[in-house]
Write a structure and sequence with these properties.
By secondary structure, the chain is of the alpha+beta class. It contains 2 helices and 4 strands; from the N terminus they run αββαββ. It has helices spanning about 1-15, 25-40, and strands at about 20, 25, 50-55, 60. The protein starts with a helix and ends in a 17-residue tail after the last strand.
Length: about 80
Amino acid sequence: MHKESETLLEEAAEKYADVQMPREGSVGKKAEGVLNDMRHLSLGKAAPEVKGVDEDGKQFALSDYKGKVVLLDFWSEF
């Protein structure tokens, strides 16, 4: 099923790349985003490297915590 979904998303990204959707951008960009999530961010995949600064101003990388349970809370102020 997963492979079939990938095949259909690849086809949508190729054939309908310029078709615009309301509030979603193009079919191609949407399909590519979903493909990226399936291939790199789905359950069982290794987490991508994340680097940042903690609340004390100390730099860290997600890989610093390999083998530990980690909760990441993303936020920003404008």
